[in-house]
Amino acid sequence: MSDVLDVTGLGRSFVQGDRTIDVLRGVDLRLAKGEIVALLGPSGSGKSTLLQAVGLLEGGFSGSIRISGEEASRLDDKGRTRLRRDAIGFVYQFHHLLPDFTAEENVVLPQLIHGSSAAKALERARSLLGVLGLGERLDHRPSQLSGGEQQRVAVARALASRPALVLADEPTGNLDEATADRVLGEFLRLVREEGAAALVATHNERLAGRMDRVVRLHDGVLS
Ligand code: ADP
Ligand code: MG
After folding, report:
1. Which ligand is in closest contact with the Cα of 25?
2. What's the whole-model pTM score?
3. What is the pLDDT of residues 175-187, one digit of tens each?
4. Which ligand is nearest to the CA of 47?
């Protein structure tokens, strides 16, 4: 069976004035279906750059990124947007929820964009938020939720359209230790239940130890 993610020789450089910074220098990485991998590396090592490339949020990379068997570098903008929408869920360090919408609406909206019926989207949103302990918070806006609750909504949103691949960029980096532990536990449990593969950037060795496998980003390559 083909891997959910197959990255080969991924390179990414940034030009800054007359200097070129080679942040990724040939990253190779494969994720099988359902596999949860921690992406470890100190601040500035290129974790976000890697997730943004893999998440098709930015072009400008060299090498190959295959997602569910589709080669991203061969797609145009429209194709990349479609593949991202169909195959990828993203959780950011800061939740990026829509401030004027309720928790429930934040989880419903991406499903509508994905083509779900309103009734199905609502049912899925309520079910996910319920599993995450937010059944009593459906009508709250992000500003009316704690940091941990906001991240739980972001987790529900990322998983709502049943992506094969979940990318999380320091998803609990903004939370205190106890809350981070709890939210990460719920995130991992849900990702496992859904059978998704996940790549989770963190600089926390302890949290990384709770995932199936750890890869380390150093000098632009993984080890
Ligand atoms: P991490 O997420 O591991 O902290 P980043 O991927 O954010 O690391 O950054 C890796 C390196 O790439 C840093 O040196 C950063 O300054 C540089 N970088 C990231 N994005 C840009 C950009 N848009 N332009 C120039 N340099 C960038
Ligand atoms: Mg980062």
Report:
1. 1
2. 0.96
3. 999 999 999 999 9
4. 1
